[in-house]
């Protein structure tokens, strides 16, 4: 089960409003766990509910549920947590080097050094 990262409450699809972005994480992770920061770095998610007509990459409809799509919160550049969302454009911004991703277009990089998807080197922490 996923929980809202801010409220720590269980997330239901109806909790996610159209156009809104919700930060989520798996239930059961606790800040007092010795490797919490490492765990949350790998598991943090962004959930956004989009209207079908606002989804540019129609393949995204295949992996959405009721218009809700999930993306890793971790930037594909060097791994900073993404934390800014622009509701009108469905763009998210990484504060470290300003990479901008379009959540309505499969997370496509629209600006900055972010990669379309993590490279093998990034996966290995290089
Ligand atoms: S880590 Fe996100 S742009 Fe560099």
Automatic annotation (TrEMBL):
Pfam families: Rieske. CDD domains: Rieske (cd03467). The keyword Zinc-finger does not apply. InterPro entries: Rieske_2Fe-2S, Rieske_2Fe-2S_sf, Rieske_Fe-S_prot. SUPFAM superfamilies: ISP domain. The keyword Metal-binding applies. Keywords: 2Fe-2S, Disulfide bond, Iron, Iron-sulfur, Metal-binding. Residues 42-126 form the Rieske domain. PROSITE patterns: RIESKE. Iron-sulfur subunit of the cytochrome bc1 complex, an essential component of the respiratory electron transport chain required for ATP synthesis. The bc1 complex catalyzes the oxidation of menaquinol and the reduction of cytochrome c in the respiratory chain. The bc1 complex operates through a Q-cycle mechanism that couples electron transfer to generation of the proton gradient that drives ATP synthesis. This is Cytochrome bc1 complex Rieske iron-sulfur subunit.
């Amino acid at each position: 089960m996923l929980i809202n990262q801010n409220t720590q409450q269980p997330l239901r699809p109806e909790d996610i409003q159209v156009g809104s972005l919700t930060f989520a994480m798996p239930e059961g992770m606790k800040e007092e766990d010795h490797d919490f920061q490492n765990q949350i770095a790998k598991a943090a998610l962004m959930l956004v509910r989009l209207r079908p007509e606002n989804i540019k990459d129609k393949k995204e409809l295949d992996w959405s549920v009721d218009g809700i799509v999930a993306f890793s919160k971790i930037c594909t550049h060097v791994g900073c947590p993404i934390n800014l969302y622009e509701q009108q454009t469905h763009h998210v911004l990484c504060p470290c080097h300003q990479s901008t991703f379009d959540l309505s277009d499969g997370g496509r990089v629209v600006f900055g050094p972010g990669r379309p998807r993590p490279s093998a080197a990034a996966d290995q922490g290089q």
